[in-house]
Amino acid sequence: MNKSDTKTLPDGIIPLMVKSADLMKRRLEPREAFLLSRLDGVSSLKDICLMTGMSASSVSKILLKLNRLALVYWEGSPLPYSSMDLEEEREDVEPPPDVHSTDDRDIELDADTRNMINSKYWDIIGQDLYRVLEIRKNATKEEIRRAYRKLAALYHPDHFFRMNIGSYRPKLEEICRKLRVASELLGDDRARRIYNEKLKEARKTSIIRPNRTRRKKGGISAHPVAKKVKKAKRLYESAIEANRSGNIKEAYNAIKLALMNDPKKPEYKEFAAILEKEVNKGKAQSYYARAKNASIQGDMEQSLELLRHAAKLDPDSWQYSYELAGAIVDMGGDLEEAVRRAKRAVFLSGGNPDCRYFLAMLLEKTGRSGDAEMEYKKLVSKKQKVQEAKERLAIIGKGRK
What we know:
By secondary structure, the chain is mainly α. Helix content is about 60%, strand content about 0%. The model is unreliable at about 1-5, about 80-105 and about 205-220 (pLDDT under 50).
């Protein structure tokens, strides 16, 4: 039986929109259209549930309907490739405008990012789909998926959220469209065989141009590795400047591009790790806020899942560890995990009395009265939650008698 026949689809599937789908001809309900708008080619079913606040069964039901309407597919689901465009590469596409065009004066993109977008936009014209995804001809399905996720995350318009990107938006959309086409087609064995045969014929008739290195007048062009190193340095400097201006996300985007061009530079890796930590802190705050909201609405299961995400993204926050430990207990989860989280909260907070008291209660609940007694005594010695700690110590003492 096909995966799509089951009532609830696996958490790990990554739904994709069919490129040739005409949404105007489909009568979609608001929930279906809403879910369709959240498909970015990267998020799994589990991620979509967290983003939309819908249950796995509801998301699965909608995805199955969208699949029947030939709007959505995932690995293992049927996809009508007969409607998919095995397109020949277009020769009549206009080149992108100059990066310093007067129309782009108010665009919030630095010169390196503009050049990167323009370069990719021009590169996808007249190139086969393997080069679009920057993969080998014998790439595996996993390599195709990784390449797509990496490039889609880099060139998706949402990557530049709340930034004025002006005329660069249609370029990014075209790049993402071509990346999606390449991923969908090369990820399907039958469609890939058809495409390879067509590609072979196309090369014989020169429909698809080879990617020749342009040479400078009077000599050989600069070595591609040297060009990448130079570009990486410019991106690194842009990242430093953006960080100084307080634009962490822009700085992180720039340093990621620098690492793509020069992945072995230690200072780039170190700076990227610092920026990634800051970016993840922002994401963790968002997850934490959503967790609190879910808790208020009574959805404790989703609240627990969101707290796990927050604690994972910002492992240095004692508050997330403390809240997660409490949520695990409230949901009747693994008390040993709750103890570990509570211990981490005590350590990260430098001995917060609420964290320590909660840890002592958990230790007592799991039968480690000796360890609990030590924690209560620490509270008493530091004159923190003295009355509560003494009451618990008295109860432990009576239990021994």
